[in-house]
Amino acid sequence: MTYRSRWAPAAMAAGAALLVATAVIACGAQPEPDEGADTVRSLSATPSAARPTTEVPVNDGALPRRDSPIAPVKMTIEAIGVTATVVPTGVDPRTGDFDVPPSVDRVGWYRFGPGLDASAGSTVIAGHVDSASQGRGAFFRLRQLSDGDLITVTGDDGKHRRYTVVGREEYRKSRIPLDRYFARDGKPRLSLITCGGPFDQATRHYRDNIVVTAVPTLSGA
Predict the structure, then answer these.
(1) Which of 58, 114, 198, 204 has the most CB atoms lying inside 10 A of its own CB?
(2) Phi/psi of residue 94, each to 5°?
(3) CA–CA distance from 93 to each of 97, 98, 124, 194 (Å)?
(4) Hey, what's the signal peptide range on this chain (predicted)?
(5) d(CA 211, CA 168)
């Protein structure tokens, strides 16, 4: 499955691998209803511009940020039994698609978007739902996540960051609002993407994409 956006050069191909017939039924049956659509939209809204000021700017004394963003290297989602390695990915130069890791037990972070240290925007991680040759993928049960479920992402700085699920949505691939999920503005958030919906035997692809949105969990929560 592919989808392209005028905002980004990437087209998502998460979970495009072929599927054995028995697993088709398991993935395609009884789709979960969407949750938190209004919340997700509010996260992507661009904040209003700050009022101009004539005050002298004050340096807070913090050390300069590192040049490269903090990359996610591991993800754990206890609610659906996921422990997966996260690898940086970009765009497949042959197809222009999002270059999801070929091993279905791994997931890919879109390295041209925000990292874990970003103060705004959507950090995108995509993965396969399954494969005919490899079986269930890391995101096989992604559609089962619900509001309040926790996600732990470890960065290449060694820190563990927790996120709370606030939304789960399903779109036809031709209708997914990529500008929202690949945005660099709005509140910081995590966007997890995989395949879903019925499996098209003719094209050997799923019809839809599942998107789970999570926000940083407040300290002590």
Answers:
(1) 114
(2) -80, -35
(3) 8, 10, 19, 21
(4) 1-26
(5) 6
Name residues whose C-beta falls within 8 Å of residue 60's C-beta, 6 or more positions apart in sequence. Answer: none
Question: How many CB atoms are closer than 10 A to CB 161?
Answer: 18
Q: What's the rounded Cα separation, in Å, for the pair 205 and 221?
A: 39
Which CATH fold topology does 72-216 show? Sortase; Chain: A; (2.40.260)
CA-to-CA dists, residue 90 to 33, 75, 141, 156, angstroms: 30, 18, 24, 18
Alpha helix (H) residue ranges in the chain: 21-28, 37-44, 178-181
Q: What is the spatial distance between Cα 5 and Cα 92, in angstroms, rounded to a whole number?
A: 15
Q: Which residue has the tokens 């949505």?
A: 169
Query: Within 10 A of 24 (CB to CB), how many other CB atoms are there?
Result: 18
pLDDT in tens, the chain (221 residues): 343 433 343 334 444 332 222 233 233 334 567 788 888 888 876 543 334 433 443 444 444 455 689 999 999 999 999 999 999 999 888 877 788 899 999 999 999 999 999 999 999 999 999 988 999 999 999 999 999 999 999 999 999 999 999 999 999 988 889 899 999 999 999 999 999 988 888 877 888 999 999 999 975 44
**The pLDDT of residue 66:** 55
Radius of gyration of the chain (CA): 18
The residues, any chain, with a CB within 8 Å of residue 28's CB and separated by 6 or more, are: 197, 198, 199, 206
Distance CA 2, CA 187 (A): 27
| Amino acid at position 5, single letter | S
